[in-house]
Amino acid sequence: xxxxxxxxxxxxGTRCSLxxxxxxxxxxxxxxxxxDCKKILDNLAYICHDVKIEKMQIQGGExxxxxxxxxxxxMCACMDHIEKIDxxxxxxxxxxxETIRVLAKHADKVTVRFSVYDCVDExxxxxxxxALRMSGVKVDSYHxxxxxxxxxxxxxxxxxxxxNDEQVKVxxxxxxxxxxxxxxxxxxxxxxxxxxxxELKNVGGxxxxxxxNVLDITSLRLHSQSFVEELSAFDNxxxxxxxxxxxxxxxxxxxxxxAIQLTDEEMxxxxxxxxxx
Length: 277
What we know:
Layout: E1 4-11, H1 37-50, E2 52-59, H2 69-77, E3 82-89, H3 97-105, E4 110-115, H4 122-134, E5 139-142, E6 150-152, H5 165-173, E7 181-184, E8 187-189, H6 192-200, H7 207-210, E9 215-216, H8 217-222, H9 227-240, E10 255-257, H10 264-275
Parallel strand pairs: 1-2, 1-7, 2-3, 3-4, 4-5
Antiparallel strand pairs: 6-10, 7-8, 8-9
Helix pairs in contact: 2-3
């Protein structure tokens, strides 16, 4: 049974100060919300009771939009089963003074990682980096996945289901984001895109369409079920069956410029599409 998660992404919500057209987690296309702080921390503690997390990355869309981010960072840094923590920021927001104090307090375990995007002015971003370093915060700059300022092209969010089940299995087994375990509010999945597709693709009228593609962490916790056993069963199911939500992901096997922003006209189309879900 799995007793270690190499990498876990922890969402505090979906609010973001950018609207990236090709966001791997489809954040601009879903409702912009902040999750209940107590519940998400309880769910994380439930997972950490059974497994060790080698590295956790806190996201939010943009995590510094989350009003309780200082509490989240402090509580996560105090969990012994989490070895290292990254805060993934797009560099548009300087955290408040309370958050800076918490970040400095846990600088041995927590790193703030600034994404380098052309859509964010370099000078203000560097000023934020310098201010945090002066306060004792551990800071790093990085290009997501590549050093070239590019992302993987995983296709458009509005694509229809790929009806070829064997191809769906191939998509999953060759996916660059496979095992990018993501915990968002009640649910955990093997990538963040699945969690957003759950909202965007009301397949088959509701829960049954995506039930086997996620773990309902809140339900498991409240019923005192074994997380390790459920995670192992999930792994086995995903490898041997057709992962339904992966049928909506059609990777183009290429790279695209990172963080291209949606235009106002494109955002209007997004909201019109959501009205028809």
